[in-house]
Amino acid sequence: MIVLVVEDEAIIAYCSAAMLEDAGYAVLGPAHTSAEALELARTKRPDVALIDIDLEIPDAGIGVARQLRAQYGTAIVFTTGRLEQAQAHFDIAVAALAKPFDPSELPGIVQSAAARRRASSSATPFAERCVGRLVVGRLNDVLGQLHEQLALAHDAHEHGFGSMLDTRSRPRFRNSPTAATQFRSPLVQ
Description:
The structure is a single chain. It contains 6 helices and 5 strands; from the N terminus they run E-H-E-H-E-H-E-H-E-H-H. The longest helix is centred in the last third of the chain and has 54 residues. The C terminus is likely disordered.
């Protein structure tokens, strides 16, 4: 599991990174600015990010958190001395850790954040697969019906424009009784 550490206070940043590495996590960073954090995230997509809310400017960490969550689905844990600010942004974070914190707590917090990330994203691929199958199945039906209509129009063109273009002989779309009357051949004005 890849954990990104985003912290502008050097002692906290390196202590957190060392504790997570000792626990067996692959650590990105620490990053000390928003730009560093986003650049590191581009190289390896983090599963979890520990983000200080106040980096180079107040609330800069919130913007980083939004981008990581939106672009990579990263689980966000805010590390801050301003818990009220973290709580105001729990729509993007799965947890908040008040400073000063005990670095020995980090492995458990990261594990919990990763579990929440997996739980929230596990339903999405299944739902997407179901919707995808439904859409593909419906598209196949529509394409088959369009193929029949094109074949009919081609036959009408080859054999003259007689009764083949009569609306009663055209295939109709399922669940749409008016679809056949809406079809207009580009060959007939």
